[in-house]
Amino acid sequence: MDLKTVRAAGEKNAVRKRVGRGPGSGLGKTSGKGHKGQRARSGWSAKAAFEGGQMPLYRLLPKRGFSNSLFKVTYTTVNVSDLMVFEDGADVNLQAILAKNLVSKSSEYLKILGDGEIAKRLNITAHRFSATAKEKIEKAGGKAIEIAR
Question: With contact defined as beta carbons under 8 Å apart, do 94 and 110 qualify?
């Protein structure tokens, strides 16, 4: 380590490289770009996969297979403990949950999970219920109504 590499504590940005300012600067003449060639020219930039004209690896490898990820069903999930914000005897569905800002809508399907406790009698309409959620809702005197998706 020497004095020119010492940096103040918490210094965010490195000192800008000043190129083309004479031979004494260490970055004069060709300004650190070497002699001629594609990279020495002004305006040069390459795509991330550019390999200098060689066939890029992503084009070289065969594309095979199929992914079911396009058909994956995602659910907006809510725990039973979060449903305590509703009044006793209320009808709860995805629209009611969104209106109370319990979740931001990430899917058109709703799943109720069983984390926490519920003490209110609620009529909950959802596309899926976990086994513990269904058990806790019915134990509290509410109804777990499952809709087909």
Answer: yes
How distant is the alpha carbon of residue 29 from its chain centre? 46
Mean pLDDT along residues 87-114: 92
> Domains (ranges, CATH) in the chain?
16-65 (no CATH), 70-146 (3.100.10.10)
Which one, of 50, 38, 107, lies nearest residue 97 by Cα? 107
SS3 110: strand
Residue 44 near residue 38 (C-beta atoms within 8 A): yes
* Residues 24-56: tens digit of each pLDDT: 988 999 998 999 988 899 988 988 888 988 999
**DSSP H or E run through 128:** strand 128-129
Are β-strands 143-146 and 75-79 bridged in parallel, bridged antiparallel, or unpaired?
unpaired
Question: How is residue 126 annotated by DSSP?
Answer: E
d(C-alpha 79, C-alpha 101), whole Å: 14
Angle ∠(108,111,113) on CA atoms, nearest 5: 155
Q: What gap in Å lies between CA 22 and CA 29, rounded to an integer?
A: 7
Q: Over pLDDT 70: what percentage of the chain? A: 97
Mean pLDDT, the chain, whole residue set = 90
